[in-house]
Amino acid sequence: MASITLDGLAHAYRPDPQGPKDYALKEINHVWQQGGAYALLGPSGCGKTTLLNIISGLVIPTRGRILFDGRDVTRLPTEARNIAQVFQFPVVYDTMTVRQNLAFPLKNRGVPAERIRARVEEIADRLGLSASLDRKASNLTADAKQKISLGRGLVRPDVAAILFDEPLTVIDPHLKWQLRSMLKEIHRALDLTMIYVTHDQTEALTFADKVVVMHDGAVVQTGTPEELFERPAHTFVGHFIGSPGMNVLPATVEGSTARIGDTTLALAHAYPHLPAGARIELGIRPEFATLAAPGDGVPAKLNRIDDIGRARIARAEIAGRPFAAMVPGEVRLDGSEAGIRFDPRQIHIYADSHLVTGEAIR
Amino acid sequence: MEKTLNNRAWWLVAPVFFVVAFSAVVPLMTVVNYSVQDTFGNNQFFWNGLGWFGELLDPSTDLGGRFFAALWRNLLFSAIILAIEVPLGILVALSMPRDGWKVAATLVLMALPLLIPWNVVGTIWQVFARTDIGLLGWVASALGLDYNYTGNALHAWITIVVMDVWHWTSLVALLCYAGLKSIPDAYYQAARIDGASRWAIFTTIQLPKMKRVLLIAVLLRFMDSFMIYTEPFVLTGGGPGNATTFLSIDLVKLALGQFDLGKAAAMSLVYNLIVLAVCWVFYTVMTHAGSGRAETEIAQ
Lengths: 362, 300
Hints:
The complex is a heterodimer. Chain A is built from eight helices and 21 strands. In chain A, strands 6-7-8-3-9-10 form a six-stranded mixed beta sheet, with helices on both faces. In chain A, strands 15-19-16-17-18 form a five-stranded antiparallel beta sheet, with no helix packed on it. By secondary structure, chain A is α+β, with helices and mostly antiparallel strands. Chain A is elongated. In chain A, a hairpin with a 2-residue loop joins strand 12 (252-260) and strand 13. Helix content of chain A is 23%, strand content 34%. In chain A, helix 2 runs parallel beside helix 4 and helix 3 packs across helix 4. Chain B is an all-alpha fold. Chain B has two domains: 9-45, no CATH class; 67-288, MetI-like fold (Orthogonal Bundle). Chain B has helices spanning 10-35, 51-56, 62-95, 101-115, 118-128, 135-142, 153-181, 185-193, 198-226, 230-235, 247-257, 261-289, and strands spanning 37-39, 45-47. Chain B is flat, with a radius of gyration of 25 Å. The two termini of chain B are 37 Å apart. The A-B interface holds A 53, 56, 58, 77-79, 83-85, 87-89, 91, 93-96, 104-105, 108-109, 128-132, 135-136, 138-141, 143-144, 149, 152-153 and B 184, 186-187, 189-190, 192-197, 200, 204-205, 208-209, 292-296, 298-300.
């Protein structure tokens, strides 16, 4: 049982990191609570796999410490940590049967044979592998192999956390759902911390209680899926989460009014303390902006309307910047002139890409 | 789907047929022709039927005794060098660097012996092993060893085996290295997480993944050592006595030394059949090794 604390962690693959550019992973302070289901979400190359490998002990960080329940394990080898990891491509020991595969971590740790047997059967049962226990692991399908990799982590009674590195990449789409719900079930049944690395927002948002969004080697936001959607702390989070992503427009903000181009908008909050010289942007999710007749809301140029099934999305331009908005059923437009209405309570103001919290208007 | 029958398609096979005929079948037929005849020179041939083959395969005759002696000698040699080169090659491959400039340097150094022509290898070792001017021979003598590869059969064998190991271990190592490089890092990482020992990593990950290249390496080394000629010929000339007379050397002695074309032809055909048979066994093993088909359904 462990909570995992990352204390001032940073990593550079170069031996002599100079500036922040050299760091694959910029300084991170974070606590993974015991029993939580976390997702590490970010595009390829954002440092999420590096972070995962540091936690599992495959990579020793350049700076900072990792604590498991307050015990410093930064320099402890992988096998001495109570960690299991499931990799992107299923790892099974080809020459062994499924049973031998599952027994392998226990055998290596010198667990008595009858305990191994009972434990392997229990875990195989949970993973639905009981019927294929005595088959050669190399002959199984990718999803069964991935279950075996997971099983090798689960059989160890000491395992406190399981790390997943994009585990569903090679799994058929219709089996992904099945495996993911099995993971959730296991998470509920066994009191395990699970950290799930992915670049797929659907996977992250459906799997995790808390999502850690990474961008360019740094954590930009940690929150529940709702928080990430409703209050993106960084314009990157706004872009990355949601489909289509959040609209971001350059704006000037004075008190509780914002100006986009020639249009003035009333905001729901006041921003008296915006940092001087910072790049100010206004962000709003397409779900909270609606297409309207010209003259209503902010003037926009409509390019096209996409029907995505559950809704229609207008692809427009405001002051030369692309903008997506919802199309209500009743709107009638001629030509490309249009207006877009903003829900003022859902407008966020960003200074240098970071969210600025507004104050109540006096 | 129905197949179209068209005899004109045979024309498409014709080029291959002619190339194979002229490059292999026709020359081989002259050997077959010799093997059933006897000659006393002067281009006069007499029909002998399967006589030579009968003699060759009967160890109690002169020819048969000589053939089986060379055959066992050659099999023993192949077994010894395989027993040394395969484990040694694996060991070398395991200790080769994984990345950085050292990889290129190691690969070039390892490839060097492979680039030296066979007869040059023989000459190098012939000089190297001489007790008067050769470094190896001289040092052995200076250390008080009674080393003499031209007079002592065991010394001759040791020298030839060491020469072959020096010449060909690189090949096994390079093939194994290629096999090792194809193992994704995740396997090693998973093994570390599973707490596997170094030995367990070797037996459960590295060896199974190297199995196919190892089979190729064993095949190549077996064939090559079974057909070895130049190096021992240059080094010992098959001696002392007949101690290092392997099949090829014996064949040349028979055909060109004694000019017994009929006997030599019969021997070369049998030799050829043995090589083909071993090749076929290896091929079968190899194609079966990697053919475990993925079974699609898993019991839920």
